[in-house]
Design goal:
By secondary structure, this protein is α/β, with parallel strands linked by helices. It has three domains: 152 residues, Rossmann fold (3-Layer(aba) Sandwich); 86 residues, no CATH class; 127 residues, no CATH class. It is built from 18 helices and eight strands. The chain has a six-stranded parallel β-sheet with strand order 1-3-4-5-2-6, with helices on both faces. Strands 7-8 form a two-stranded antiparallel sheet. α12 packs across α13 and α16 crosses α18. It binds adenosine-5'-triphosphate (ATP) and magnesium ion. The site of adenosine-5'-triphosphate (ATP) has 23 residues, from α2 and α8.
Length: 412
């Protein structure tokens, strides 16, 4: 049986597609992950769809290839639907062809036990359990193998170091006319110039592009899809129409994977991986226009939604919590995900019930602040609490105006 492939030389890189476009920014991120890889044997880069995980892994591969006597190998798992075929797919990516699927994981670990290489396991999320199991086996059985995984959620096995990939940097909102140093603007400008040679960042376009990339959450795929539309629409119209982002951003690179050809497809890929209950919570929390607490999530998605919210954070569908002005942890949904969730909420006929639940929650927050004041809480504390919920309050008031001025408590 021919199992002796995986013959790479020091510094060699195998399986990565040639980059046809420039890589923008993230120099510090590449350094950091390269550093993690010298410390840990498994590093998982996580982030939402189109955040740039795969592209980044390619840059990290170039940076660290010299450390591996048998080089760096890419195993692309996005097309693998059947978890039972993960090990065979990885073996095939390594050039080890004749492995029966049942024994593939074992044989792979055996072969790799004699190699010193970095395996890049790309897009693990849809076969997460099988990918985790295989990684566990390799970490135990092949001492000189390291793994760089990319996934919308972590593998969650012992020995994993996680790197949560942040969006590209945005311009300072107070100074949008000066986007220097913003990675998101630099990416937009580069791709827009490819689409339309006459495009230039100037005093007129720069502030518009700054707002546009912020509305797209600094996400590279969304920015590329938008830039491809610049010739047809110009940046001002693009920004005007960004509320219709899923219609607007739907014709990407024909050679890209189907999930990356439109903004809707990339979000749908993650949504599809959720179970029914998680989907319901995802839809419900998309009603929040800004940061929300676990209590808020439970008010709109039902008691017991807390653990699901934490799972959505793991799946990169919510941003990890940060403390709001009142010190409470608050979760945020990226605007693209929120827009997608809101569409689903309406489609499922749940919009009014969830809006009413939100209104009930807003009333309780206001009442709590009031009773806190009566009981001697400082005005500053009460004001901070209301300030932290201000976006929600405003949305509830708008909703109440549309519905005849009444903020109804939720129906029991
Ligand atoms: N730093 C960057 N500079 C230039 N282009 C980038 C950068 N990051 C991502 N891109 C581009 O954005 C698109 C999406 O990136 P990528 O495929 O790496 O996302 P991903 O996070 O792996 O998405 P998915 O979860 O769907 O696999 C690609 O066309 C990629 O080339
Ligand atoms: Mg990817």
């Amino acid at each position: 049986m021919e199992r002796s492939a995986v013959t790479g030389a020091t510094g060699s890189i195998h399986g990565f597609p040639a980059a046809l476009t420039s890589f923008v920014g993230r120099a510090g991120v590449v350094d950091e992950i390269a550093g993690q890889l010298s410390q840990y044997r498994l590093v998982t880069v996580t982030g939402p769809g189109g955040a740039g995980k795969t592209r980044l892994a390619g840059e990290v591969a170039k940076r660290v290839a010299g450390r591996f006597a048998d080089g760096v190998w890419l195993a692309e798992l996005a097309a693998v639907r059947d978890p039972a075929k993960v090990a065979a797919a990885v073996a095939s990516a390594l050039g080890i062809r004749e492995l029966p699927a049942v024994a593939a994981a074992y044989a792979l670990a055996q072969t790799l036990a004699r190699r010193q290489l970095l395996l890049v396991l790309d897009n693990c999320e849809q076969v997460i359990d099988a990918a985790a199991e295989l990684c566990g086996r390799l970490l135990l059985g092949a001492d000189d193998v390291r793994v760089l995984a990319t996934s919308r959620e972590p593998l969650q096995i012992a020995g994993e170091a996680r790197y949560r990939l942040a969006p590209l940097t945005l311009p300072d909102p107070d100074n949008p006319a000066d986007p220097d140093g913003s990675e998101a603007v630099a990416l937009f400008a580069d791709r827009a110039r490819r689409a339309d040679a006459s495009f230039a960042l100037d005093g007129e376009t720069a502030p518009v592009v700054a707002r546009l990339v912020a509305r797209l959450d600094g996400m590279p795929l969304a920015i590329e899809l938008a830039a491809a539309r610049v010739e047809a629409l110009g940046v001002a119209q693009l920004l005007d129409r960004i509320d219709d982002r899923f219609i607007l951003l739907e014709a990407g690179d024909r050679l890209a994977a189907a999930r990356q050809r439109s903004l809707a497809a990339t979000v749908e890929w993650s949504y599809r991986l959720l179970d029914e209950r998680e989907r319901r919570v995802f839809r419900a929390v998309s009603v929040f226009p800004g940061p929300f607490t676990l209590e808020g999530a439970e008010a709109v998605a039902g008691p017991g939604a807390g653990p699901t919210v934490l799972h959505l954070v793991d799946c990169s569908l919510l941003v990890p919590p940060r403390a709001g002005p009142d010190g409470r942890s608050r979760y945020v949904m990226l605007e693209t995900l929120r827009a997608y969730g809101a569409g689903l909420l309406a489609e499922a006929g749940e919009g009014d019930a969830v809006a009413a639940a939100l209104a009930g929650y807003a009333v309780r927050v206001a009442e709590d602040a009031m009773s806190g004041l009566m009981a001697g809480t400082s005005e500053v504390t009460a004001a901070r609490r209301l300030d932290a919920e201000s976006a929600t309050m405003r949305q509830v008031l708008d909703w109440a105006m549309e519905h005849g001025g009444a903020v109804a408590p939720p129906l029991a």
